[in-house]
Amino acid sequence: MTLYHFTKDDSNVSNCKGQCLEIWPPFHADNIISNKGFDKKDFKTITRDDGQKQTTYKGHPLYYYVTGR
User: Fold this and answer.
1) Contacts made by residues 63-68, CB under 8 angstroms, sequence distance 24+
2) What is the distance, to the nearest Å, from the Cα of residue 2 to the centroid of all Cα atoms in its chain?
3) Residues 10, 15, 20, 34: what is their CA dihedral angle, to the nearest 10 degrees?
4) In this predicted structure, what is the pLDDT of residue 53?
5) Which of 20, 27, 30, 52 is the most exposed place for a label (fewest CB within 10 A)?
6) pLDDT digits (tens, 9 = 90+) for 31-68
7) How confident is residue 69, by pLDDT bands cut at 50, 70 and 90?
């Protein structure tokens, strides 16, 4: 599964709101298991303005992409 970041986000701040979230839902995982080439300490959790938790990678909030809309 592929994860994405939103270029309009600020460091550790998600700017994806409203209809944006219908296509780009936030990714969150409590326990990251990183593959070779990724450092687990680069993954953090933020709390979004709407109260949801979201995982970041090097400060970039991560998202899924929903197809078929």
Assistant:
1) 63/3, 63/4, 63/5, 63/6, 63/16, 63/24, 63/25, 63/26, 63/27, 64/1, 64/3, 64/4, 64/24, 64/25, 64/26, 64/27, 65/2, 65/4, 65/23, 65/24, 66/22, 66/23, 66/24, 66/25
2) 11
3) 50
4) 97
5) 30
6) 988 888 899 999 999 999 999 999 999 999 999 999 87
7) low
Cα dihedral 41, 24, 13, 62, rounded to 10, equals: 10
- At 41, list the tokens: 């300490």
pTM for the complete prediction? 0.89
